[in-house]
Write a structure and sequence with these properties.
about 55% helix; single chain; about 0% strand; mainly alpha
């Protein structure tokens, strides 16, 4: 019999923002606030420690997309400055929230799958 931990793909759990063990319970209460435990299987989310990882990845990805998009918009289409302000001022924060949500869920799923935890000198 296969356990549910082996059937949930970290990528699918990350895309759906679901529990890394059962794939059913939601990870977040609101947009980016973590729940205490899974509603479906009861997995305690105290092990979660993504740190600044999702933010660092999001900065690099958004920097590439937004600066690249702004350069294309400027040099290929010659849009006025106010179009840049409207386009990137609205698009960048929206992309940041959704990208952070996905990346945080993905790193949580990978942390669970790989049993990653803080290093210790001895088991106590």
């Amino acid at each position: 019999m296969q356990s549910s931990a082996q059937t949930v793909s970290p990528l699918i759990a990350g895309l759906r923002c679901r529990c890394p063990r059962c794939g059913q319970g939601k990870l977040f209460v609101n947009v980016l606030n973590m729940r205490d435990r899974c509603d479906a299987c009861g997995l305690d989310y105290k092990f979660v420690d993504t740190g600044d990882g999702p933010a660092v990845f999001a900065i690099f990805i958004l920097g590439f997309l937004c600066i690249g998009g702004a350069l294309v918009a400027e040099f290929e289409f010659g849009v006025p400055w106010w179009v840049h302000v409207m386009l990137w001022g609205i698009l960048t924060p929206l992309l940041a929230v959704f990208l952070l949500r996905f990346l945080k869920a993905l790193l949580i799923a990978l942390q669970y799958k790989n049993k990653a935890e803080e290093a210790r000198l001895s088991k106590e």
